[in-house]
Amino acid sequence: MARGIGVRYSGKGYRALVLERAGGSLSVVGLAAGSGESGLNGFLEEYGFADAETSVSVGLVPGDFLSGYLPREEGMTDRDLEELLRWELGRKMLTPWYEHTIRFAMVDGTGFIFAGRKKLVREFRSSSGAAYIVDVEPIALYNGCEGAGEIDEQPSALICAEAEGISTVLLEDRNPVAMESFAAPTESVLRFLPGLEFDGTEIHDEKAVMELVKQMSESLSRLTMREKGRGRQFPERLLLAGGGACLRGLAGALEEKTGIATRVSDPFLSLRVEMAVEDSRLSEMGPAFTGCYGLALRALEG
């Protein structure tokens, strides 16, 4: 039996999901959301999640990392593409290279690069001093939706809506081909997203919905217009996740704005995972835990 914990931090604290694998079965055995005033380790200890034998994966949120992507052109090696992406990323950096942790990955002919601030990454350590696994929100979003069986052959877009910002991932043939994250802190939205006061019921606020729809549709437009010139297909459906997806009417408003069929991600409803927790409040917050689920899967991989 193996366990993995996925954690998302925000302006309101932390969300955490504990995933257990026994044989070929996956079970969600722990959920938590709280202020985390004593820090990440204090938060995990408070909810009984601290365990030296359990891997922890933390997702960097929009504003705490930089990203870039490019499809590989004919004759270009992986190394050539990485160097070009490093050059483009360097133009966005406000601090020196050595203050960042860099990760490069190739996915089906497209190169992706991410840079997180070392100072922040180094804070994610267990009480024993061991470093936690650190990922970024777009990858956690993709892993969560894929791990829940929510991705199919349709050209799609995954969108994570949070008060800190938006992450968008375009998919073609089930693989990511483009992604972006941007910080857009919205205090008027923050108080409506899942946190300590969330009671398991959907919340509605027209202003918050319209603000998030504006941000998400603009992100989708930027990516699709950029990829249209490369012959990519336009998304035929949108999959919405994040705390914002718990706002009543958000998915419908996004579908009306974009004209694209929109559904809400919920790993807790997946046939691939058993819900072994009895917290009715948090169990209703599946969309807010999609990223945490993806991070927990990453933690299980080691």
Mean pLDDT: 89
Largest sheet: 6 strands, mixed
Question: How many distinct beta strands?
Answer: 14
Helix content: 25-40%
Radius of gyration: 18 Å
Strand order of the largest sheet: 8-4-1-2-3-14
Note the total helix count. Answer: 9
Tertiary shape: globular
Task: Describe, in plain words, how this protein is organized in 3D.
The protein is an alpha/beta fold. Helices cover 30% and strands 32% of the residues. The protein contains 9 helices and 14 strands. The protein has helices at residues 39-46, 78-92, 118-121, 137-147, 187-190, 206-228, 250-258, 280-283, 290-301, and strands at residues 2-10, 13-22, 25-34, 55-60, 65-71, 100-107, 110-117, 133-136, 156-162, 165-172, 175-183, 237-241, 261-264, 273-275. The protein has a 6-stranded mixed sheet. It has a 5-stranded mixed sheet with strand order 11-10-9-12-13, with helices on both faces. It has a 3-stranded antiparallel sheet with strand order 5-7-6. Strand 1 (2-10) and strand 2 form a beta hairpin. Helix 4 (137-147) crosses helix 9 (290-301) and helix 6 (206-228) crosses helix 7. The longest helix has 23 residues, at 206-228. The protein is globular, with a radius of gyration of 18 Å. The two termini are 14 Å apart. Residues 194-200 have low confidence and may be disordered.
What's the arrangement of secondary structure elements?
Elements: E1 2-10, E2 13-22, E3 25-34, H1 39-46, E4 55-60, E5 65-71, H2 78-92, E6 100-107, E7 110-117, H3 118-121, E8 133-136, H4 137-147, E9 156-162, E10 165-172, E11 175-183, H5 187-190, H6 206-228, E12 237-241, H7 250-258, E13 261-264, E14 273-275, H8 280-283, H9 290-301
Parallel strand pairs: 1-4, 3-14, 4-8, 9-12, 12-13
Antiparallel strand pairs: 1-2, 2-3, 5-7, 6-7, 9-10, 10-11
Helix pairs in contact: 4-9, 6-7
